[in-house]
Amino acid sequence: MYFQLAFRNLRRNGVRSALAVIGIVIGVMAVASIGIFSANLKTSFLSSFQNVTDEVLVYPAYNAHFRHGLVTTSGVMYIDKRTAERIVRLPYVKDYAFVKDTFTTARHREEVFGVTVYGMDESAVKKLFKAEKGILRLSDSCVVGYDLADRLDLRVGSRVEINGHKLRVSAILKETGARFDVNPNNAVLVSLRDYDRIFNTKNEGYNFIVVWVKSLKDVSLFKDAVEKTVNAREKKVEVFELKIIIDQINKGFSFVSRFLMAIAGISLLVAGVSILNIMLMSTLERTKEIGVMMAIGAYRTTILKLFLLEALILGIIGSVIGAVLSLAGGYAVDMMILHSAKYLLSLTTLGYMLEGMFFGLLTTLISGFYPAWKASRLEPLEALRYE
Amino acid sequence: MRAVIELVNVRKVYRIGGEEVYAVNGVSMSVRKGEFLCIMGASGSGKTTLLSLMGCLDRPTSGKVLIDGIDTSSLSDRELTDIRRDKIGFVFQQYHLIPTLTAFENVELPMLLKGVPKAERERRAMELLEIMGIAKAANRKPSELSGGMQQRVAIARALANDPEILLCDEPTGNLDTKSGEVVMNLIEEQNERGVTVVLVTHDPDIAKYAERVVRIRDGKIVEDPGIKLG
Ligand SMILES: Nc1ncnc2c1ncn2[C@@H]1O[C@H](COP(=O)(O)OP(=O)(O)OP(=O)(O)O)[C@@H](O)[C@H]1O
Ligand SMILES: [Mg+2]
User: Fold this and answer.
1) Which domain holds residue A178?
2) First to last CA, chain B
3) CATH number of B35-61+76-223
4) Does A75 share its domain with A187?
5) Structural domains in chain A (count)
6) Which residue of A72, A231, B67, B189 has the fewest C-beta atoms within 10 A of its own C-beta?
7) SS3 state at A383
8) Residue of A5, A288, A297 with shortest CB distance to B101
């Protein structure tokens, strides 16, 4: 019956209550939609990186310093073969790929162009990439990235000349998203043997090693092991956990997302002020009724609860509608900016909807509290005499 | 006979601007159990204020109000509310029904506030509306009822928690003679059942219902057959 009383009081001023609900709807919708969109943007962005969390990159510990106007370097530019072998023999290593890379010019027909050339084993290429056309084979042939092939009109069977060495294109790779290890889109991939032949690097080590550990928790164990063995006497290599990079991106995104949500929260603040206003008007208009309620035996706390209940009803209705509409809002923004809504239906979305609802309810309760408190502090006789 | 309400040198002062208005100025009186008491006085003489003090709707500036022998000055707001809810029924000149609730729900309300179970609430509300002769109007809103009917709903509401005392502030003030008579008969009926009635009026015809008439002027008792005036 308290609920009925509250509900009927809201209905009595239908337009006013509707406006308050609309305010909350807009606020909740803004907060939740932006949360949903930011989450989808992040998912969409991170999905362009492959599942790299069990991947670790090992680079030579090469440093450049500026000192007295001169550039001095320390460390080495590549990982020598003995060190490389020691690294990949460490426990925790499930699989690995030795990689040599350089940026150079190449030629196709009459066209000369800049490309990255990667030297790596055929098995590693097969592990990392898929062919769009042709078959991945690296003996006396090469594999080219999607963009490069597209730009130069390369086909399976075309010939690419690097450093005077002609290589037949055996396959064109599928387009990939941004990667931290090997970026093949604008690159030529050759076998390590061919690489050494082309660049005369047989006695040099590798530019980096891609290591796959057995499980996620092995990432830090592997890192420790490298420090204790290979790096024990001098710092030869640097280990990069891709997980940490992804974590950083995650952190950055959630910071931006919080910031945007806070801005959207201003609309909730506005809604809160309008509820405050509406409820204050309502308590003023109902002063006499409050007096009557007190006269027939309503505690101050009962009056307080009754008005809070009214605010709560407004809040629940507004928040639920707002949360549902935020799905539509999220969809609209997703389509507008990401041109796809495939990440919309997820647990994260539900999470942001609930969060929007929570803040919507919180706003109504906070702004409903002062009028409710004021109503409960009225003196019964004065309230009864109020005209 | 025991006194259900006792006022000891009660004063109520209002401040308007810098001026002090004594709405009730040193009233001492007692209301006996089962009595039908009428308070008469001109407009502005302090009748409503006095009745509100008896009903614990307000606290006196000085003096004591005892209900059933309990000194109310030492009670908290919450305890005063309990007294209003359980021991006192109010009937006002403007009926003061809750406009969003039906007649039936208005009668239920004091019981809801007391925590009476729903079934018992509904039984009692219907019983009271029947006693008041308006059972047919149970599901109507106050705005759909005549003044006389609204006042009968208000009396039913005042009786909901079976109070000892019924305080009526010009209950017939807004009614025509005929509905006024109906209302007065209903109040009288309750008095015959043993409910103590204190009724404020300035209509001498209404005052005839009372066993005892107390007259006040400017917040002071000028005539009270129940006590000797010093
Ligand atoms: N809240 C208040 N502030 C200031 N003065 C008040 C207040 N309430 C009542 N008064 C004054 O106290 C006096 C008594 O008022 P009260 O309402 O008790 O009179 P009454 O006898 O009930 O009058 P009526 O017959 O018009 O209802 C009046 O002079 C009134 O102006
Ligand atoms: Mg009066």
Assistant:
1) 55-214
2) 22
3) 3.40.50.300
4) yes
5) 2
6) A72
7) helix
8) A5
**pLDDT interval class at B228 (50, 70, 90):** very low
Same-domain status, A33 and A78: no
How many separate helices (H) and strands (E) can be counted in chain A? Answer: 12, 12
CB-CB under 8 Å, B99 with A9: no
Q: What is the pLDDT of residue B230?
A: 36
Q: Is residue A300 within 8 angstroms of chain B, CB to CB?
A: yes
Encode pLDDT of B123-149 as tens digits.
999 999 999 999 999 999 999 999 999
Same domain, A95 and A194: yes
Residue A380 lies in a domain: yes
User: How many whole angstroms separate alpha carbon A299 and alpha carbon A301?
Assistant: 5
- Which of A167, A190, A214 delimits the end of a domain? A214
Dist. CA B48 → ligand 1 center (Å) = 7
d(CA A271, CA A273): 5
Mean pLDDT of chain B: 93
Convert the pLDDT of each residue in A357-371 to its tens digit. Answer: 999 999 999 999 999
Same domain, A280 and A379: yes
In chain A, whose CA is at the least distance from the CA of B79? A299
Q: Considering the domain boundaries, does residue A221 fall inside one? A: no
Residue A229 lies in a domain: no
User: Is residue A357 located within the same domain as residue A273?
Assistant: yes
Kindly report, residue by residue over A171-184, the tens digit of the pLDDT: 999 888 777 788 88
Residue A225 located in a structural domain: no
Same domain, A82 and A148: yes
- The pLDDT tens digits for A74-106 are 666 788 888 889 888 988 898 999 999 999 999
CA of A239 to the centre of ligand 2 (A): 89
Write down the pLDDT at residue A50.
53
DSSP character at residue A13: T
Domain ranges of chain B: 35-61+76-223
Strands (E), B122-224: 165-169, 196-201, 212-217, 220-223
Q: Ligand 1: residues within 6 Å at CB? A: A 382; B 14, 16, 21, 23, 41, 43-49
Same domain, A255 and A361: yes
**Conformation bin of residue A187: beta by default, left when phi > 0, alpha when psi is -120 to 50:** beta
| Index of the ligand 1 atom closest to the CA of residue B200 | 22
Nearest by CB to A292, which of B58, B98, B112?
Answer: B98
Cβ B199 vs Cβ B55: under 8 Å: no
The CA distance from B182 to the nearest CA of chain A, in Å, is 23
Q: How far, in Å, from the CA of B41 to the mean position of ligand 2?
A: 10
Which residue CA neighbors atom 28 of ligand 1 most closely? B44
- With CB atoms and an 8 Å threshold, state whether A295 touches B57: yes
Residues A42 and A59 grouped into a single domain: no
Q: Which of A8, A9, A296 sits opposite B157 (nearest CB)?
A: A296
**Residue of A290, A296, A307, A313 best to disrupt the B interface, most CBs of B under 10 A:** A296
Instruction: Show which of A214, A235, A256 is a domain's final residue.
Output: A214
Q: What order do you get walking across the sheet with B19-32 strand by strand?
A: B19-32, B3-16, B62-67, B70-71
